[in-house]
Amino acid sequence: MGHAMKTREIETGIHCDLTASLSYSDYLDLETLLNSQHPLSRPAHHDEMLFIIQHQISELWFKLIIHELRAVVAHIRHDRLAPCFKILARIKEVQQQLFNQWAVLETLTPSEYAQFRHVFGHASGFQSAQFREVEFMLGNKDAACLGVFEHQAEVHGHLEQVLQSPSIYDEFLRYLARHDHAVPGERVQRDWSQPYEQHPGVVAVFKEIYEDTARHWEAYDMCEKLVDVEENFQLWRFRHLKTVERIIGFKRGTGGSSGVAFLRKALDFRLFPELIDVRTYIEEPAG
To answer: What is the pLDDT of residues 261-274, one digit of tens each?
Structure first.
């Protein structure tokens, strides 16, 4: 004999009449969110929806990363490292989500992508204002990148302000200087709009921290959290490169870049160089 399928009864306490209440959809503004996908291919190509949603989700994660990085910078400026650790651990998990979602986009084959790539013209991820803000906050400063935002005065002005502000790494070095570490003066006060330049004096500071972790525990923990962020950032870049290579080969990017070759150059950039360099000089305890 067959068995009747069991159903879960709706509990009597569950609110069903939400006429005058804030609903799940209202709180999340789902009407706006779920009506923000507008494929341009005609007839609409099945896979364009994937492409749009993939990039919209990335932008939402970028928004959260910016939100969290701003909090980290504020804590460092007020000499509070401890709250940063949980925030940076969260950023690491968000970066994992960004990394893993490339696997979804990789289900898009070259044949499928070729059917609708033409519809977005010169639109390109290089024009993502939020990604540029993340890069600037992490220290990858390049004023030339602002050129693509000149048609958006408010966005351009905001990014220019972020460009001219200390990065998270700059703020950490300033924190260390305030706490009696011998950070070179030119690393503490400089033109923040310029790319960070490696300094042997900073390596010496980190060497001291790593060789006496008990004495410098909070600074040591912060160092490792920053290494996590840089490593995950570079892994994301590499996965981006491999995804592009898989889907379009060595075609030029829609934004005018050389495509894979352009993305490969970015892999050479280091956000927090001395945090990697110091590992070469850490000495083993005697005995």
So the answer is: 888 988 888 999 99
